[in-house]
Structures are given as structure tokens and as C-alpha cells.
Write a structure and sequence with these properties.
Length: 324
Amino acid sequence: MKRRSKHVQKKRFYSIIFIIILFLLFRYTDVKTILEQALVSNVSTELSVHFIDVGQGDCILLKTQDNTMLIDAGNKGDFPVIQDYLASQNVTKLDYLVLTHPHEDHIGSAANIVKNYKIGAVYMTDFSADTKTYRSLLKALKKKHYTYEIPAVGESISLGEAILTFVGPVSSYDNANSMSLVIRAVFGSNSFLFTGDAEMDSEKDMINQNLNLESQVLKVGHHGSSTSSCYVFLKEVNPKYAVISCGTDNDYGHPHEESMSRLNDVGASVFRTDKMGTIVAVCDGKEIRWNQNGMESTQEHVEDIVLDWIKKGTNEFKKITGIE
Ligand SMILES: [Zn+2]
Ligand SMILES: [Zn+2]
């Protein structure tokens, strides 16, 4: 009797030590999210996310079994490219059109999209532009008797089994880029953060609001500009994969070396539309399958370190305690 209770005490001691070390080595949120991701998968369909190659601009299609969303609409001349791509994916209507902010490289083809597709709901940010493109967009919306909504931070919408939450902008900015709508999409244990052209001020304010930003895939802000993707933000999002939508030899030199270096530091594999064309991520709620090979980081991603450590630790724990 005495020996058994000593053995139980020893097992309990090692269990507590194991858990304490795990949480000491990594941030509580890292361990918690990674464990949750490993355990949770409550979806029965697939979600595909298509970062359409529109050169220097953004245009992202989200597609579930029965639903579609388009985030941004590339440049004015990109409409044939977008139209062909949507046709190749059998997309004839959009449940949602999200226009992150009114810069030309995000709303360029929006008027044509509104004219040519049936759209369920349009979301825009609270920032107008005195441009011909913006005016034609408003005109096209009016002609189809569509109105647009300005979503509140924390507002969620569903796209099939995916839940999308608007997490930014949390404040008002003079700069259109930082007024970009920011969306976090969760599908089973897969997660994405779409940031438009949000810059560091918006990134820092989102962190200060204690919003859950942690995401496996980050659509890198502002085409990889050094004015976005600050280190604290990347630490908070902790992306395993990062997608940069930019044009070959673009005038801005995007993506900038500084942001590439910071993405490398957090251990994110980087995908670039200028190098790889259209990038597609297919999610089943657990795994993400890519149509391209990302450029791997020289650093190990924290998720891989934690999972590896849990595996090693569990084996060691079994050896010491005999608990299966
Ligand atoms: Zn842009
Ligand atoms: Zn912009």
C-alpha cells in the first residue's frame, strides 16, 4: 500500500513538472492555441483560399462548398483576369464582397464586379476617396440598389462552416492603408488573417485591444512593405505561413527586405504572387494543402517547436512514469 501511494505521488509530481515546464518555455497562448488546434476539428467540408495573381494589388477568393467571398478587387485592368479566374472556379455569384480600403489596387475592378455578379453583401471601411474609381464603384452599387455596410470590430459573419470576424481597424486613421478592414477567418483548426494594407499603427492598436489575432496564415499587410508587419504584431499573429501579394519588379520595391527579415525571424514560410503566380490554400479544418512550395524560413516556427517538444516530452514522461 505504502509503495503504491509513493508511486502515484511520483507520477503526479512528474505530471505537474511536465506541464509547468511546457508553459514556462512558451507563452501560455502559444501552448493553448497549439493544443486547441491539435484537438479541434469540427468541419466536414473544405475551404479554399485563392490569392489571385493580379500583379501589384490584392484579390482573394474564399470558397466553401456553397459560399464565396471576394476580398478586394485588384486594379482596373485586372477585371478579365479576375473574371476568368472566378469562371475557372465555377463562381457565378458572390455572397460577400469585402473592399478593405479605397486604394486603386484594391477597388480597381470592384465596379465591374458589382455590375457583373450578384452579390449578397458588400463591406467597406469608413474612408472615402476622391477618385474616379471610387465614384464608379458607388455608382455601380447604386444602380444595382446595393448598399454597403461598415462592419464593427468584433462583428462576425459565416461563410459555410468558416467564421469570419472583423478585427480592424480599431481606431480612425488619416492614412487610408491603416483604415483597411482586417478579417480573421477560422475554419476548424485552420486560421487566416487578412490585413489589406494595414500599417504598424493599426497593427499595434489591434494588439492593444486584446483581440485574438493568432493565425496560421497571414496575408502580409501592404504587399510586404516595411511600414507593415512590425515585430510585435508578427509575434502576436504567429503565422506559420505568410502570403505576399505583389507585382514583379513593382515601383515600390515590395516586398521590402525589413519585412522579409521579420517574417523569417518568426519562422514563417513565405509565398509570393510575383514569384509563384496565384497561390491556393485548401483547408480541411486540420491540414492546409498549398499549390506551391513556400520559401522556408531559416528559423523554426514556434508551433513546430512546441509540437516537437510535446512529442519528446510525452515519450520521456511515459518512460519515467509508465503512464501511457
Ligand atoms: Zn495596396
Ligand atoms: Zn493601400
